[in-house]
């Protein structure tokens, strides 16, 4: 897929483009290995995918619990220590008593998740050692091979079970090299993401050097897209978007017969 994207930029006369990459599966593996509360896991992964104040949220989740009370204090107390199934049952019962099935367009499940999140956040802070590990992880960047070495060192030092995700990343880099991609020139960052929460693995953007504000081509693996659109089961998918106007403006019209193929 990345090789095809590079062929697209080359067809417009643009070579030596900047390749920015990341892998949300690595972050997901890290959060799973830290064995956090489910609501913390969902919140952090959502923040990472959408790029909504992840750093600020990490700090906020480590603050000491405050004494502020709200109108749902009783519900939050009842949910303390509960799992999602118990929270869903309680909220379902409460809404049944009230004679309603949704509030403000939110379903029972969404309301239960929100209450459970508030209960967990009120019950305690994100452990400081977990925060430190997440920050160390997010600081890893550089060429893929050096990043793989640093990831393995972090996993060994912190005794984190993320080997499978690192192995998959390393294998992918090897396949890219075999396909002719100059992996040593790639820029990898554990904090890189496209800001879309349906991505589930490798992500990339191609930028013109010295003019990198707007991507030329961008995409990755998004196995979560179809479930967000209503599919009952995940459907593996990869693909990318091409900014044809930007390619034309920076590189000119494509050479005849050089653009083709499927992106997904």
Automatic annotation (TrEMBL):
Molecular-function GO term, any one: histidine-tRNA ligase activity
Pfam families given in the database record: tRNA-synt_His
Any GO CC annotation of this UniProt entry: cytoplasm
GO biological process, one term: histidyl-tRNA aminoacylation
Key words of the record: Glycosyltransferase, Transferase
Transmembrane segments: none
Record InterPro entries: aa-tRNA-synth_II/BPL/LPL, HisRS-like_core, HisRS/HisZ
Domain (Class II Histidinyl-tRNA synthetase (HisRS)-like catalytic core): residue spans on this chain: 124-247
Official protein name in the record: ATP phosphoribosyltransferase regulatory subunit
Organismal lineage: unclassified sequences, metagenomes, ecological metagenomes
């Amino acid at each position: 897929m990345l090789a095809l994207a590079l062929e697209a930029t080359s067809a417009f006369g643009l070579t030596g483009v900047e390749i920015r990459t990341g892998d949300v599966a690595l972050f997901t593996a890290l959060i799973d290995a830290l064995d956090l509360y489910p609501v913390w896991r969902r919140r952090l992964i959502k923040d990472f995918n959408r790029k909504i104040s992840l750093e600020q949220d990490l700090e906020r989740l480590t603050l000491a619990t405050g004494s502020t009370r709200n109108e749902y204090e009783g519900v939050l107390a009842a949910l303390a220590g509960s799992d999602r199934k118990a929270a869903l049952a309680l909220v379902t019962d409460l809404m049944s008593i009230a004679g309603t099935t949704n509030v403000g367009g939110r379903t029972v499940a969404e309301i239960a998740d929100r209450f459970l999140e508030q209960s967990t956040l009120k019950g305690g802070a994100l452990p400081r050692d977990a925060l430190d590990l997440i920050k160390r992880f997010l600081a890893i960047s550089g060429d893929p091979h050096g990043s793989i070495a640093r990831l393995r060192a972090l996993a060994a030092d912190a005794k984190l079970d993320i080997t499978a995700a690192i192995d998959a990343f390393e294998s992918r880099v090897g396949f890219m090299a075999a396909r002719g991609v100059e992996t040593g020139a790639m820029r990898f960052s554990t904090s890189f993401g496209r800001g879309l929460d349906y991505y589930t693995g490798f992500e990339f953007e191609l930028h013109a050097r010295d003019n990198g504000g707007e991507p030329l081509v961008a995409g990755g693996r998004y196995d979560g897209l179809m479930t967000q659109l209503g599919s009952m089961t995940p459907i593996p998918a990869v693909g990318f978007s091409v900014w044809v106007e930007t390619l034309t403006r920076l590189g000119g019209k494509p050479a005849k017969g050089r653009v083709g193929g499927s992106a997904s």
